[in-house]
């Protein structure tokens, strides 16, 4: 299994890169969002990867973060969601947006991805809703491990959409943990943190916890 690629970009296509790793070229397919964040031809890049093997095909898919890779793994586990649909969802929403949509049960957000219809979007939300808290919780630890390396190796040339930073991933994971310590269930906590993060994308842990507690407070 090829879990990571580090090398220099030989060329860029619309949906994939050719990355030279010590004289060996690897074709790596990426989402639109990831492609937009890649540096220019000739520059260094590092991507986490997932290798798909079929009888007639081998394809390598690249991701900026381990959280994005984990969502790809989970998305492709849903019946009817292949690698192409997974990359379309991640490209449209980003890993943080996927976490938020699934935690909130917002299948309409998933449906905006190219080629993803209402039935598939609903199935994604229903099948993965219980997975969202775990991915959001692991985001903080992964972000801490990835942050320095990404800053050194990947320099976005002209990203078209806001990227989730290691700091925001960590804040969401810490807020989720804090709510769990207060006795809230993983699903309720994940939904509240996701909604709060969507409304305040740059909020720190304390602000997310306060906002989430307001959302979780009994109504009436």
Structure commentary:
With 220 residues, this protein is an alpha+beta fold. The protein folds into three domains: 4-63, Nucleic acid-binding proteins (OB fold (Dihydrolipoamide Acetyltransferase, E2P), Beta Barrel); 67-132, DNA polymerase, domain 1, CATH 1.10.150.20; 140-216, no CATH class. It is 54% helix and 18% strand. It contains nine helices and five strands, in the order βββαββαααααααα. The chain has helices at 32-37, 66-75, 83-104, 107-111, 118-128, 132-153, 166-181, 186-199, 205-216, and strands at residues 4-12, 16-21, 24-29, 44-54, 57-63. It has a five-stranded mixed β-barrel with strand order 1-2-3-5-4. Strand 2 and strand 3 form a beta hairpin. Helix 3 (83-104) crosses helix 8, helix 6 (132-153) runs antiparallel to helix 7 and helix 8 (186-199) packs across helix 9. It is globular and about 60 Å long. Residues 140-163 have low confidence and may be disordered.
